[in-house]
Write a structure and sequence with these properties.
By secondary structure, the protein is α/β, with parallel strands linked by helices. The protein has one domain: P-loop containing nucleotide triphosphate hydrolases (Rossmann fold). Helices cover 43% and strands 15% of the residues. It has eight helices and seven strands. The strands form two sheets. Strands 4-5-6-1-7 form a five-stranded parallel sheet, with helices on both faces. A two-stranded antiparallel ribbon has the order 2-3. A hairpin with a 2-residue loop joins strand 2 and strand 3. The radius of gyration is 16 Å and the shape is globular. The two termini are 28 Å apart.
């Protein structure tokens, strides 16, 4: 797991959007598992958790959010050659437990607290079984216990073979889960 740090305006979120294929790179190429990959295919293989969880929640229940994320992932994984795919797959039940959401499974996502929404969008990213997971300020709205829960889950995902990049200013999260940090300098 790698922390991506730097001052506001340094380009951390822009870099994340480039790595996911949401923004098109003007030059350069992307590789995944040693093979060049198009921006369109990047979007299917890289998960992104945005700072504002509300922008990523659209279904009627917490369970539906996780189920749709899994279905989308299954469709994009049909032709996968990654031997780690099966090892990183999480069931909806596992994700509800992992992120402390089991008691909220039938709630409408917009009725959740900020921290619950944040844990849900991270769980949805896990459900997509990404090769790369990028999280932009993932501890926003989380108390200490849930921040540690998320840090443990991210560490387990990395141990299962995913690349995890955390954009953060949270030194405690970096200490708990990141083995290195990359600092983006301010652009001149």
């Amino acid at each position: 797991m790698t922390a991506l740090i730097g001052d506001n305006g340094a380009g951390k979120t822009t870099l994340a959007r480039l790595l996911t294929g949401l923004n098109r790179a003007e030059q350069g190429r992307f590789f995944l598992h040693g093979q060049e990959i198009s921006s369109e295919r990047l979007l299917r293989r890289v998960g992104l958790v945005l700072q504002n969880a509300d922008h990523q929640l659209h279904m009627k229940t917490v369970t539906q959010e996780l189920e749709i994320s899994r279905r989308l992932a299954e469709g994009s994984r049909a032709a996968s050659s990654d031997p780690n795919d099966g090892e990183r797959t999480f069931s909806v039940r596992e994700l509800l437990e992992e992120f402390g959401l089991a008691g909220l499974a039938q709630r409408h996502p917009q009725s959740l607290s900020g921290g619950e929404k944040q844990r849900l969008v991270i769980a949805c990213a896990f459900a997509k079984n990404p090769d790369v997971l990028i999280l932009d300020e993932p501890t926003s709205g989380l108390d200490g216990g849930n921040m540690r829960r998320v840090a443990r889950a991210l560490t387990r995902l990395a141990e299962r073979g995913a690349c995890v990049i955390v954009i953060t200013h949270d030194l405690e999260l970096m200490k708990l889960s990141c083995s290195r940090a990359l600092r983006l300098p301010l652009r001149s």
